[in-house]
């Protein structure tokens, strides 16, 4: 794996993904019953925004850097609060000391009775993940291929929870692997909540991916996408990402209403140029 998220941590795609994930976790933790958070491609856990990687490619400035300085309306601010609390304090320039990846976000928002099952195959990333999350009896971290781990993890014994499928999409067959993994997981745990993150680069390829996921036959798949417009190339992003999407299977009911509030505001706060926008619609309708 050549991809290192440290160059991109806290960018617009992270903000979008993590703001939505936080809302899902907030909803799931309202019931007393325990739940399981499953992450197939956990990464390093938390990213130092003062590191050389972050300095060489400071994508966080147009991502979380904008959000922490923004003054959203009260309704938006309330929805963002759990996400922002997980990030932690900022310096005088509006930069957090570090940025939480999805596992660190979940670790912060989950309760003592909940569990986190994390998979990270890359040894350096896994070592960083273990160091970042520390000693926590709720954690299980394995060095297994994320798709193999997912098949073993579902259904969780808690029968409640969230699965995040968030690969770097470096391999040419990644989309096909995501499709196969989701199909297998849904066959074993059809009532689970699944969030599939993806970069949106080529419209034709993305349309094929969406059609393939819809063809799995699962109802209740919410499609959320954020496009920030044209992004100038950087030293570590010769073809910078301008759009990303989440497909959420069995989303919490309240997330639909919350997305109506969050998505337009995020699109406005994070836009880089003309031509951006957002998508909020059902990929497959509710059952």
Describe this structure in words.
The protein is α/β, with parallel strands linked by helices and 287 residues long. It has one domain: Vaccinia Virus protein VP39 (Rossmann fold). Helix content is 40%, strand content 18%. The chain has 10 helices and 10 strands. The chain has an 8-stranded mixed beta sheet, with helices on both faces. Strands 2-3 form a two-stranded antiparallel ribbon. Strand 6, helix 8 (174-188) and strand 7 form a beta-alpha-beta unit. Helix 1 crosses helix 4 (74-87). 44% of the residues are buried.
* The CATH architecture: 3-Layer(aba) Sandwich
Given as residue ranges, the uncertain stretches (5+ residues, pLDDT < 50) are: none
CATH superfamily: Vaccinia Virus protein VP39
Biggest sheet, open or closed, and with what strands and sense? 8 strands, mixed
| Strands in their spatial order, largest beta sheet | 5-4-1-6-7-9-8-10
Total of DSSP H or I helical runs spanning 4+ residues: 10
State mean pLDDT (0 to 100 scale).
93
- The CATH topology name reads Rossmann fold
> SS-based structural class?
alpha/beta
Percentage of residues in DSSP E strands:
15-25%
Radius of gyration: 18 Å
What count of structural domains?
1
Can you give the helix content as a percent range? Answer: 25-40%
Specify the CATH class. Alpha Beta
Distance between the termini: 39 Å
User: What's the order of the H and E elements?
Assistant: HEEHHHEHEHEHEHEHEEHE
By DSSP, the count of extended strands is 10
Shape: globular
């Amino acid at each position: 794996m050549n991809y290192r998220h440290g160059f991109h941590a806290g960018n617009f795609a992270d903000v979008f993904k993590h703001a939505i994930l936080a809302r899902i976790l907030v909803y799931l933790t309202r019931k007393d019953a325990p739940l399981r958070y499953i992450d197939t491609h956990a990464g390093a856990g938390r990213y130092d925004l003062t590191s050389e990687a972050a300095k060489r490619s400071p994508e966080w400035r147009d991502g979380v850097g904008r959000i922490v300085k923004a003054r959203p309306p009260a309704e938006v601010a309330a929805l963002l609060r759990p996400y922002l609390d997980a990030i932690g304090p900022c310096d005088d320039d509006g930069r957090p000391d570090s940025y939480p990846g999805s596992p660190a976000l979940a670790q912060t928002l989950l309760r003592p009775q909940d569990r986190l099952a994390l998979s990270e195959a890359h040894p350096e990333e896994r070592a960083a993940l273990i160091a970042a999350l520390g000693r926590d009896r709720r954690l299980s971290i394995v060095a297994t291929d994320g798709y193999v781990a997912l098949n073993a993890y579902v259904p969780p014994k808690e029968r409640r929870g969230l699965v995040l499928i968030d690969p770097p999409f470096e391999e040419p067959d990644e989309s096909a692997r995501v499709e196969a993994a989701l199909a297998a997981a849904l066959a074993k745990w059809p009532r689970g909540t699944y969030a599939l993150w993806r970069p949106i680069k080529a419209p034709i390829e993305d349309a094929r991916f969406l059609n393939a996921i819809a063809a799995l036959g699962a109802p209740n798949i919410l499609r959320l996408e954020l496009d920030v417009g044209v992004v100038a190339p950087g030293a570590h992003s010769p073809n910078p990402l301008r759009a990303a999407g989440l497909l959420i299977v069995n989303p919490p009911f309240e997330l639909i209403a919350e997305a109506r509030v969050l998505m337009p505001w995020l699109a406005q706060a994070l836009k880089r140029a003309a031509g951006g926008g957002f998508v909020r619609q059902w990929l497959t309708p509710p059952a």
